[in-house]
């Protein structure tokens, strides 16, 4: 009977550890999702900034400087 108690305790400890690991994985997944969303937002802001600059130059009646865009990669 004592051996079963020890096994039950080990099983409970193992379950607690697995629960903590699962919680940490959830946090990491949320953080990764936020990082992906942040990258998308950054690209959108960059595009918006370029568009606003083009509009500003057009309003001034000047041509925007010719700038090569970096390739993503």
Question: What does this protein look like?
Answer:
The protein is mostly helical and 73 residues long. It has one domain. The chain is built from one helix and no strands. The longest helix is centred in the middle third of the chain and has 59 residues, at 2-60. The model has no long low-confidence stretch (mean pLDDT 84).
On the 0 to 100 scale, the average pLDDT is 84
In percent, how much strand structure appears in the residues? under 5%
Helix percent band: over 70%
Question: Could you say which overall geometry the principal axes of the C-alpha atoms support?
Answer: rod-shaped
Low-confidence stretches: none
Number of helices: 1
* Rg from alpha-carbon coordinates: 27 Å
What structural class is derived from the secondary structure elements? mainly alpha
SSE string: H
What is the CA-CA span between the terminal residues?
Answer: 62 Å
What does the main sheet amount to? Answer: none
Tell me the count of domains: 1
Number of strands: 0
